[in-house]
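Subject: design request, 267 residues
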């Protein structure tokens, strides 16, 4: 059990922002990363589609790779499918990713927080419940970023900057100077991969909140509770698979998860 890998999946390379934190927290673990690029973007599709893809990926990771835990490294898939995944695999520790509204409330001084995520995440009932529980503590400005995950996937700088500018226009009336929005939540795992674009848009006075580290710590806690952590003398390895071009994923993994032995498998 302890030597089995942890499965991690996303609609594409965005989940590498979570895997980077997992790898830092759990350097002895083996990981299998599944990028569903052939079916992306998830964020502009309906729940049923994302649920079907999430179940198919979890099944492949469980049956072919014998994973000991699953990290849903995608806000959109967590919102649409995590309850279904937990019901289907009741004995598998499963960790999801949700926009970090609670940490943002703890950080904000002005009480104004911008949240960027996909349309599907922002329209989900899971997000509505999270938002409703905190709406009395801060004002949240919710902004879907259509096309942005795809632009990041393609590493298309012009499209990335155009999509980021939509955010600036949308939050414009609230501003990001003193007394206005002081916290920005990146609620899609693709968005931290262009952290520098957000930093340039909002300036140094705005906190930028991501979810990789809390997700990694929660995964470590669940594995420790199940007595399933890899031994401290093991060297973690990474297997890559997915439904898109293997070279694209390999290059992204080399960029975001350096210094790990990596194998790419055709899926
Ligand atoms: N990276 C995903 C998320 O966290 C979704 C991107 C997409 O496929 O739309 O929401």
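Subject: RE: design request

Done. Sequence follows.
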């Amino acid at each position: 059990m302890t030597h089995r890998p942890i499965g991690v999946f996303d609609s594409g390379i965005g989940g590498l922002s979570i895997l980077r934190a997992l790898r830092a927290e759990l350097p002895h673990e083996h990981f299998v990363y599944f990028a569903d690029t052939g079916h992306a973007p998830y964020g502009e599709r309906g729940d049923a589609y994302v649920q079907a893809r999430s179940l198919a990926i979890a099944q492949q990771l469980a049956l072919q790779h014998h994973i000991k835990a699953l990290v849903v490294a995608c806000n959109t898939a967590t919102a649409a499918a995590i309850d279904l995944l937990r019901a289907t695999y009741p004995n598998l520790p499963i960790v999801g990713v949700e926009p970090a509204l609670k940490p943002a409330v703890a950080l904000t001084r002005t009480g104004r927080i911008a949240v960027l995520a996909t349309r599907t995440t922002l329209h989900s009932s899971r997000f509505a419940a999270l938002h409703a529980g905190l709406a009395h503590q801060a004002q949240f400005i919710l902004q879907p970023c259509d096309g942005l995950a795809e632009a990041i996937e393609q590493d298309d700088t012009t499209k990335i900057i155009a999509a980021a500018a939509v955010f600036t226009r949308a939050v414009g009336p609230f501003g990001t100077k003193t007394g206005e929005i002081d916290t920005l939540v990146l609620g899609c795992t693709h968005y931290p991969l262009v952290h520098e674009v957000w930093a340039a848009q909002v300036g140094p006075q705005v906190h930028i909140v991501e979810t990789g580290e809390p997700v990694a710590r929660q995964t470590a806690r669940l594995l420790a509770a199940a007595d399933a952590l890899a031994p401290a003398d093991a060297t973690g390895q990474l297997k890559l698979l997915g439904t898109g071009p293997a070279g694209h994923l390999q290059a992204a993994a080399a960029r975001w998860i350096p210094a790990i032995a990596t194998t790419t498998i055709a899926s």
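DSSP finds eleven helices and ten strands in the chain.
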